[in-house]
Queue: 2 jobs
Job 1
Amino acid sequence: MDKTKLLIVEDEPTLLETLKYSLERQGYDVVTASDGVRALSSAREEKPDLMILDVMLPGLDGFEVCRILRQEMSLPILMLTAKDEEVDKVVGLEVGADDYLTKPFSMRELLARVRAHLRRVRLLREELESSGQADDGSLNGGAVFSFDDLVIDESRREIRRDGGVLAVKPKEFELLLFLARNRGIALGRSLILERVWGWNFDGGSRTVDVHIRWLREKIEEDPARPSRILTVRGIGYRFDG
Ligand code: CA
């Protein structure tokens, strides 16, 4: 079996070396890049299973790299930020990052998150595979949830409203799918984080709230007075269909 391949993008040589060394010791196949342009070409050539991406890079920064790659591939992207600023986190989530680590971080923390994201992706793939194959060999797994004008199509990974496909980020899709599967149940923020993001990280509830806001803007008649995704005070959210 091929080794799991990680791409590390970091312009500080010492940190890059430390990360490479530690991750290789865990048995991962590691490729590296030290600027944004090389990060893009490396990701396209090497097709890594996960990417660790520094935000502040010469030339193209980490946000741009993330934004561009998200259009092309769906690998987990863990971003490294130098400062713990909310604005950075929100921008990162907008461009499609899966997770954040603020420098300085412990190697143990990084490894735990890398494992959590790889596990989440593997479970997702297994779920898709075990949901069956049609006679023609095509995958026909995946549920389709319909709520009036709203359709969540798992195998196509599409959310449609009034027949039109909504432009949603990968995490918005996964979040709505998780809510729809648990329709009518009040779900806590930490449970949502664990199931959708694969990790319960600092400032995580804010991540859930931001994504709920984005979803409401797309699927609610009046996002200020939602009727589909309701806030359950003191707990989290409930999807009513
Ligand atoms: Ca940097």
Job 2
Amino acid sequence: MTDKFKKIKKQLKKELDKNRYQHTLGVMYTAACLAMRYGGDMQKAMLAGLLHDCAKCIPGEKQMQLCKNNNVPIRKIEQENPFLLHAKTGALLARTEYGIKDSDIWHAIEVHTTGVPDMSLLDKILFVSDYIEPNRDKAQNLEEIRALAFEDLDRAVLRILFDTIHYLNQKRSEIDYRTHDTYNFYHQLLEEDKK
Ligand code: DGI
Ligand code: FE
Ligand code: FE
């Protein structure tokens, strides 16, 4: 492992609680596996995985302040559900605190919670790795989705969004329109595939 990874890991260990740090390593290695499977850039996938939740343990108020200080706009749903913000602030901190210069990595981190229509390969690798990494055990259908991830990445994205929307509906949580938009995009894309 290069010095760059070592340095970031050391920094993250201080910023994250134990479980979040373990999750982060799980996402990093899962992202590497998916990059191998789909011919993505393994180094970028691992960096995105390692850093995607770097802002997760920062209190909501502080994350909002970070956004304000850096002219990052906060949407109403992010104001009301500050845990949604860690994707945005994570991308910001990857750039300002962890020395990541690659905008593909910032983007993958920024969209890792809700997805976005027409994601890049790196975006999809991170989105799926976050859901299936080995330490995850709560979501339904994990076994099936883990297998699907290595068979058809777009179908895995769609399945994760479907299950997430179902889960949020059950909890009566407010759903970000971006989550719906991403679902609709992949739903349509895969329906057209069938024709
Ligand atoms: O940070 P992690 O826990 O590793 O994973 P994440 O960034 O994907 O966040 C997962 C949580 O985000 C999960 O509880 C579902 C929730 N989530 C995803 N999309 C939406 C959402 N929550 C709301 N309220 N609205 C959404 O659209
Ligand atoms: Fe996250
Ligand atoms: Fe995560």
